[in-house]
Amino acid sequence: MEYTEHIEGQELLELVPQRPPMLMVDQFLGISDGVSWSGLTVRPDNVFCTGGVFAAPGIVEHMAQSAAARAGYSFRKDGCPVPLGFVASIEKMHFSGSLPRPGDSLRTSVEVVADIFGMSLVHAVCWRGEEVLAEGDMKIYLDTERDEKA
Fold first, then answer.
1. How far, CA to CA in Å, does 40 sit from each of 102, 118, 128, 148?
2. Residue 74 in 3-state DSSP?
3. Vertex 31, ends 35 and 4: CA angle to 5°?
4. 101-124: per-residue pLDDT in tens?
5. So what's the pLDDT on residue 146?
6. What's the burial of 130, exposed, middle or buried (CB within 10 Å: 0-12/13-18/19+)?
7. Alpha-carbon distance 141 to 116, whole Å?
8. Which residues have CB under 8 Å from 17's CB, separation 6+?
């Protein structure tokens, strides 16, 4: 897979509202053919690492922040402020394979399935190499009116 972008560090922090220690993406790799890609290298001091593995809730948070990075990237590209987003629901989440360990690199794809009235239905897949670790759907509400209220 050839990625269209490579955003990390301070520039990545402009796409998502999370900050360390709750930041679960360390790269945004762009959008190609309607699918965005982001990444995370699991560090041993990650708040979701316990017993030598990156726990399933950390994978879900990584997937949600991957969707946030996609939205932030799209809004910034259009010259708009990055809205806050809220996960309204998580559905059909399926985990397979073993949990990641510190040092493992995760890649997550996010595809918007539907977008209506500030609510997005996204399908996310989290990979470790060629292995799918988790896959599921999330409904995400974007508060695009926040800046208008201020």
1. 11, 27, 10, 33
2. helix
3. 135
4. 999 999 999 999 999 988 999 999
5. 56
6. exposed
7. 10
8. 68, 82, 84, 85
Residue type, 6: H
Residue with tokens 């399933």, as numbered in its chain: 56
Q: Taking 90 as the threshold, does the pLDDT of residue 149 lie above it?
A: no
Cα dihedral 77→80→86→90 (10° resolution): -30
Q: Would the CA dihedral through 121, 49, 21, 105 be positive or negative?
A: negative
pLDDT at 145: 75
Residue 1 to residue 77: CA distance in whole angstroms: 22
Nearest to 80 by CA among 15, 4, 12: 15
